[in-house]
Amino acid sequence: MSVLVLMADDDPSRQTLTLARKFGELRSVRMDGIQPFAPDALAAALARAADEVHATAVFAAGTERGNEVLARLAARMDLPFAANCIAATPGDPVVVTRLRWGGSLLEEARLHSPRPLITVAPHTVAADDGPAPPEVELRPDDRDMTVRVSDHLKPSKGGVSLAAAKVIVSGGLLGAAVGCSRAVTSAGWRPHTDQVGQTGTKVSPEVYIACGISGATQHMAGLKGAKRIVAINSDPQAPLMLNADYTVTGDLKEIVPAISAEIRKRR
Ligand SMILES: Cc1cc2nc3c(=O)[nH]c(=O)nc-3n(C[C@H](O)[C@H](O)[C@H](O)COP(=O)(O)OP(=O)(O)OC[C@H]3O[C@@H](n4cnc5c(N)ncnc54)[C@H](O)[C@@H]3O)c2cc1C
After folding, report:
1. Which residue of 62, 128, 162, 224 has the lowest C-beta tally within 10 Å?
2. Cα 108 off chain centre by
């Protein structure tokens, strides 16, 4: 009987080992054991590996890929899945603490399951420095390869990356990075790499200038690291206006050109 961990070469995977180790003797399978990334094929092979080693629990990092594979594994095996945990105590039931609502809520949950499936929220626990767990080989089945990565698109912009930018503004002034809300990426106006928020990039700039963004919880989840927020919005009661350090109430089509002109004058 062992605990199976889906591993990639990244810190979140090493952090996952820290929680998983409390659940028993570790075995690992490689996320890159199937190429290209094919979440359903990985889930199917993981299910076979879990049965082979009589796994009493399966862990993965709470990355986009880790969560996707374990969600598919849960569906295939009809088992409950606790995503984005920051703590987990073995037992019957297993007690987990989960990040919810983009990290603004902590939930304590009890998992009644013969084989709990758990992902660990990245960067919430220290990385494990114990020995690397022995690997179990994945045996993919070509019939499960329907959903797979077929191409990689390079981000359209060069220069300052969104995650590392000191100033983020919609419009590209000040040598800044350009960010946007999901309304904009859903409309296809900007690539997903520009989206700030829970399902986009978490940013930590010195200044975040939000033009015509309401400040939905999912957008604010990406802004927790911003040192200062400037909001421009025609609605003074928009959540982003209520959470900003500086606000400008009015039509951004007038305000943004006026700010741009002023900055150009002073440069
Ligand atoms: C599971 C899930 C995950 C999500 N993840 C994300 C995420 O990662 N990032 C994200 O951004 N969203 C995310 N969303 C979507 C989120 O809930 C909101 O729908 C989205 O953030 C709204 O985008 P917005 O503020 O641009 O649009 P709206 O909410 O429509 O707001 C537009 C704002 O512009 C203002 N405005 C309009 N015209 C003007 C003008 N002329 N001058 C000045 N102000 C003006 C309005 O007053 C309003 O406040 C997610 C949703 C779900 C369900």
Report:
1. 224
2. 20
For the stretch 11-60, pLDDT in tens is 899 999 999 999 999 999 999 999 999 999 999 999 999 999 999 999 99
β-bridge mates for residue 210, sequence order: 231
- Residue 22 has a CB neighbour count (10 Å cut-off) of 12
Ligand 1 mean position to 173 CA, how many Å? Answer: 21
Give the number of C-alpha atoms closer than 13 A to the C-alpha of residue 228, restricted to the C-beta side: 10
Q: Residue 249 in 3-state DSSP?
A: strand
pLDDT > 90? residue 216: yes
Which residue puts its alpha carbon closest to atom 11 of ligand 1? 181
Query: Which residues neighbour 184 within 8 Å (Cβ) at sequence distance 6 or greater?
Result: 190, 194, 195
Q: Which CA distances in Å does 111 have to 70, 121, 126, 167, 176?
A: 15, 17, 23, 42, 45
Statement: the pTM of the whole predicted model exceeds 0.85 = no
pLDDT in tens, 139-153: 889 999 999 999 987
pLDDT digits over 52-86, tens only?
A: 999 999 999 999 899 999 999 999 999 999 999 99
Ligand 1 binding pocket (C-beta < 6 A) is 181-183, 195-200, 212-214, 216, 218-219, 222, 233-235, 238, 251-253
